[in-house]
Amino acid sequence: MDVSIDNSDKAILRELQKDASISNLELSKKIGLSPSACLTRTKNLRESGMIKQFTILVDEKKLGMEMQAFALVNLVNMKQETIEAFLKDVQRFPQIQECYTLTGSHDYLMKIVARDTQTYRDFVINSLTSNAAVDTVETLVVLGVDKRTTAIPVEVSEKKGK
Questions:
Q1: What pairs with residue 101 in β-bridges?
Q2: Which tens digits make up the pLDDT trace of 47-90?
Q3: Which of 63, 81, 72 is nearest to 128 (CA)?
Q4: How many other C-beta atoms lie within 10 A of the C-beta of residue 141?
Q5: In this structure, are residues 130 and 80 in contact, taking their beta carbons and an 8 Å threshold?
Q6: 43-75: b or e for each residue (b if 16 or more CB lie within 10 Å)?
Q7: Are 43 and 77 in contact, with CB atoms under 8 Å apart?
């Protein structure tokens, strides 16, 4: 369902993506709306599904997760029951942060965090590939993070000459 939003809604989305803990009063001042109008618009954006959730980002390294990797996974086949068995397992493992279905030569791409390479290895061998649906796993180890964002670009139509 497409939701129609105006520049004020887009401004709310931009600001909340920067800091979801901002108070409604501070948000209303930043975007130039009354607090009640701002609260109503934020509530409408949430109810429409435009805002999925409010969350925090945790520094994984401060929790001892020194390793990040991307795993390219191929299943033994792409039958519905195989896919369902695989995805059920994926949901059980908190170290799998993201999982995407792909086109091309791999079936899935997963972002995985681990304490170290040994912990990652143990996870792949004892958990991931123990699922009969998994055929192959190719690991790409992250050496450094050069850009990370969760913000979706919110384009605002600006009038020329301003």
A1: 108
A2: 999 999 999 999 999 999 999 999 999 999 999 999 999 999 99
A3: 72
A4: 10
A5: no
A6: eebeeeeebeeeeeeeeeeeeebebbbebbbbb
A7: no
Q: What is the mean pLDDT of residues 119-142?
A: 97
Rounded CA separation 95/74 (Å): 19
Q: Report the sign of the C-alpha dihedral through residues 75, 81, 85, 86, in that order.
A: positive
**Residue 83, amino acid:** I
82-103 pLDDT tens trace? 999 999 999 999 999 999 999 9
Residue 158 is predicted with a pLDDT of 46
User: What is the C-alpha separation between 121 and 56, in angstroms, rounded?
Assistant: 28
Q: Which two tokens stand for residue 35?
A: 């607090």
Token pair of 30, please? 């930043």
What DSSP assignment string belongs to 88-124? HHHHH-TTEEEEEE-SSS-SEEEEEEESSHHHHHHHI
> Residue 110, exposed/middle/buried by CB under 10 A (0-12, 13-18, 19+)?
buried
Q: What is the pTM of this model?
A: 0.83
